[in-house]
Amino acid sequence: MKIGLFIPCYINQLYPQVGKATLELLEKLDVEVVYPLGQTCCGQPMANSGYERESLGACNNFVEKFKGFDYIVTPSGSCAYHVKKHFDIIPQTAEVIKLRKNVYELCDFILNVLKVKNVGARFPHKIGIHKSCHGLRGLRLGSCSEKVTEEYSYIGELLKEVSGAEIIELSRQDECCGFGGTFAVTEEAISVKMGKDRIQDHLDNGAEVITATDTSCLMHLEGLVTRNNQPLKILHIAEILNSVN
Amino acid sequence: MSSRADILARVKTNKPKLLNIPNIALDVFEDGRDLLKEFTVKVETAGGQVFETQSKDLVVGEVQKLFPEAKVNFSTLENTEDFNTINLEAIKTPHDLEDLDVLIVESNVGVAENGAIWLNDALLPMRILPFITKHLVVILKKDDLVTFMHQAYQKLNGEDTGFGVFLSGPSKTADIEQSLVIGAHGALSLSVFLV
Amino acid sequence: MSHSKAATIFNKDEKKVNWHDKALWFVRHKRDKSVHSVEGWENLRNLGQGIKAHMLSNLDNYLIQFEEKALKNGVQVHWAKDGDEHNKIVHSILKEHNAKKVVKSKSMLTEECHLNPFLEADGIEVIDTDLGERIVQLAKEPPSHIVLPAIHKTKEEVDELFQEHLGTKPCGGDPQYLTGEARKHLREKFVNADAAITGVNFAIADTGGFVVCTNEGNADMGAHLAPVHIACMGIEKIIPKQEHLGVFLRLLGRSATGQHITTYSSHFRKPREGAKMHIVIVDNGRTEQLSRPDFRASLQCIRCGACMNTCPIYRRSGGHSYDATIPGPIGSILSPGKDLKKHSSLPFASTLCGSCSDVCPVKIDIHAQLYKWRQIITKEMKQPFVKKVSMEMMGKMFAKPSQFEKVGMVARWSLRNLPKSVINSKPNVWGRERDLPKGPKESFDEWYKNRKKNE
């Protein structure tokens, strides 16, 4: 099984620790991981802003770098979703079809492909899970509160097995954080308000740490937490699952 | 071209290829709930009350106990001349019913999943009656209860009525700050007597 | 005004935003409680979606069938290409009956066509009889929500409004008292009305009948008292058979307010003895929307408002920020089809979180349509220079790994070394209320390469 590690552009540049944790975690789980150099971005920032046509170069570069892998794993539900959902703008060659099928968000991959629940992590803290929307309602990484289905959560299942980890309940279990790509800037007032409200929910319910499958949501929340000096730590799920003390 | 022809032509040109109509299979909805219990809970949730009674003939007496202050009453039941204070034949316009305090009517379908009760032209001498009355009393046979709306419509199939209404509870509104207030424009209360 | 500008103004009063958000979340919560008690809810949604999609694919035939049956039932049927024709038809019916006083129950279609001002210009009194609609009518505002038209008004505001217009006593915003007074005020209007106008929730092709749903009983109070009943409907309100109401009436009330069914689901088929009944069937842009494969599913909408209640943006920006007859997510995919220029900011008033699509009882892929409208708007509408150029630059950068690396290095250096006052200076909207991450020395790329070297 040959796995290509996809590190989204903003993680690569701004949150390399999330990339490292992802790689180390996968290596601990004994899989052969390759990080193809020269990868950039899935194209989502342009596409979600209405400039899908400007994302063709990014899509093509993505395919070039990741064709040939059995699986593509990424610490981002949103980017995985973008590849699955919106890579219909490039010709659907056998390579592209395979790649769209085999791109996985990290938790989904660990739980459903590797069939591992307990990754051997220890993290004795109260954790609030922010269920990032594209992972939740796009990739269906968990049940959402709108639909009447059996309850499940991939990130929750993995966290439950982390020694010492205590998952807190939120008042609104899956409301959006308000990041939304360029929305964060073009609709700044609402974006900030949504973020503040999410953070308050975590604080009210005793979270010490907020985690998620997406660093983009977390960057937005962290920006607010830091600015407002709030007593919360923001960590990507890979960092928690890779944690041993 | 007339607007009718224009609209129809545009629909014809713009519509997608014909899609199949789904078949409504009822087994997926079965929840094994008790009809009578469910109906009662749902009428109450909708703001109404449910009473069980041995016979239709007892209803008028019970209603008089429920609304001792009522002055203007009407019932569609047979042999209730003593109860009725108005004569519908003498009523020229529906507006003359404005002071009606209590109305007793019969229904032929009740729906357990939502407490809805069917009333139609055949059961209502005038359409405005169940809306304009202050208090509405409906008599329903337990045998006429169905589980879901689907079965209710199966029962209504072929019924050629000019007007009918599924009614669930008294009239209500929550338009002022989401505060539920019973009694908007229609009836202020609903009492269902199950026979 | 763009949505974001209006939203910024709305957000100046954070307490009111919190209040508005909670009021609508409460409705969403009630919806959850009620749908989670329904066995087979997702099957029901599939049926709702399937029946509506089928209806659209055979709409012309169903319209013909509906008209034929309605005529047989003794109902007069009219067709209107647009809002203007609709208004003229309604006006001429009222003239014909010499109707001067009209009571109207909720109809988003008549809002869309701006019927009230049209009739009022000829001295006809039109009273909106839904309590929420009456409140906004007195306040001279449009509804801010399709099911809860006055959800943006506090009870104290309603109190003041009623004191001014209905002569009520100050009551500290007591909903019970205010509703009671509105009942008296509107009862008088019902009794004296010359004509009643209602909307249509569902029009049934195989019976020629139509269903109107209310909680207050205002549609019935109007229609059963007045000598003339005019029902106005968009072409997409058709459903093939009466039995399909079993599906839609199970979906509608629960999705809208969490009620298992609305209080009154009134089935009109024939006029009552001595009275007249008219149906006005309106296109007003619907056939054009039908021609767009990516957007035609928006015509499946049953106007429950669930997408508004669930939308985190709607809850925090208020319905008026959308400046459209139908606000919220569904409005944001319908409105651009009518006037792309006016409504071009609406598809961007979303994080694409997808909650609207999952809450929708007829499974309209609202968030996917928002995404698709964005692609069209950036092509057909002039975009801000900065946005256009930055997107092109980003596109080029992500196509070339070497360029991405260089830009990344500069960005990280800047975040690490520039003073906060520079980083968070005015052009950086992000930085107004949020910090940016501290730029790390090493990108993941660099770290990985170094690690390989040292292996």
Quick description:
With 195 residues, chain B is α/β, with parallel strands linked by helices. Helix content of chain B is 22%, strand content 22%.
Task: Please characterize this protein's 3D structure.
Chain A: InterPro entries: Cys_rich_dom. Chain A: Residues 4-83, 129-221 form the Cysteine-rich domain. The complex is a heterotrimer of chains A (245), B (195) and C (455). In chain A, 46% of the residues lie in helices and 11% in strands. Chain A has 13 helices and eight strands. In chain A, 59% of the residues are buried. Chain B has a single domain, classed as Rossmann fold, CATH 3.40.50.10420. Chain B has helices at residues 3-14, 35-45, 59-66, 129-132, 149-156, and strands at residues 49-52, 73-75, 102-107, 110-111, 116-120, 135-140, 145-146, 163-167, 172-173, 181-182, 189-194. Chain C is of the alpha/beta class and 455 residues long. Among the domains of chain C are: 38-284, NagB/RpiA/CoA transferase-like (Rossmann fold, 3-Layer(aba) Sandwich), CATH 3.40.50.10420; 392-454, no CATH class. Chain C contains 22 helices and ten strands. In chain C, the strands form two sheets. Chain C has a six-stranded parallel beta sheet with strand order 1-10-7-4-2-3, sandwiched between helices. Chain C has a four-stranded mixed beta sheet with strand order 8-5-6-9. In chain C, strand 5 (202-204) and strand 6 (210-214) form a beta hairpin. The longest helix of chain C is centred in the first third of the chain and has 22 residues, at 14-35. Classes of the chains: A alpha/beta (245), B alpha/beta (195), C alpha/beta (455). At the B-C interface, helix 1, helix 5, strand 8 and strand 9 of B face helix 2, helix 3, helix 4, helix 8 and helix 10 of C. Strand 8 of chain B pairs antiparallel with strand 9 (264-268) of chain C, so a sheet runs across the interface.
Characteristics of this structure?
heterotrimer; B: 195 residues; alpha/beta; Rossmann fold; 5-stranded parallel sheet; 4-stranded mixed sheet; 5 helices; 22% strand; C: 455 residues; 6-stranded parallel sheet; 10 strands; 10% strand; globular
SSE inventory with pairings:
The complex is a heterotrimer of chains A (245), B (195) and C (455).
Chain A (H helix, E strand, L loop, with lengths): L1 E4 L3 H6 L1 H13 L3 E3 L9 H5 L7 H11 L4 E4 L2 H10 L7 H8 L1 E3 H8 L12 E4 L3 H6 L15 H7 L5 E2 L15 H4 L1 H17 L4 E4 L2 H13 L5 E4 H5 L4
Parallel strand pairs in A: 1-2, 1-3, 3-4, 5-6, 5-7, 7-8
Chain B lengths: L2 H12 L20 H11 L3 E4 L6 H8 L6 E3 L26 E6 L2 E2 L4 E5 L8 H4 L2 E6 L4 E2 L2 H8 L6 E5 L4 E2 L7 E2 L6 E6 L1
Chain C lengths: L2 H8 L3 H22 L5 H17 L1 H14 L3 E5 L2 H14 L4 E4 L3 H5 L2 H6 L4 E4 L2 H8 L16 H12 L8 H18 L2 E4 L3 E3 L5 E5 L3 H6 L4 E7 L3 E2 L5 H13 L6 E5 L7 E7 L3 H5 L15 H5 L1 H6 L10 H11 L16 H5 L6 H15 L4 H15 L1 H17 L2 H4 L20 H11 L1
Parallel strand pairs in C: 1-10, 2-3, 2-4, 4-7, 5-8, 7-10
Antiparallel strand pairs in C: 5-6, 6-9
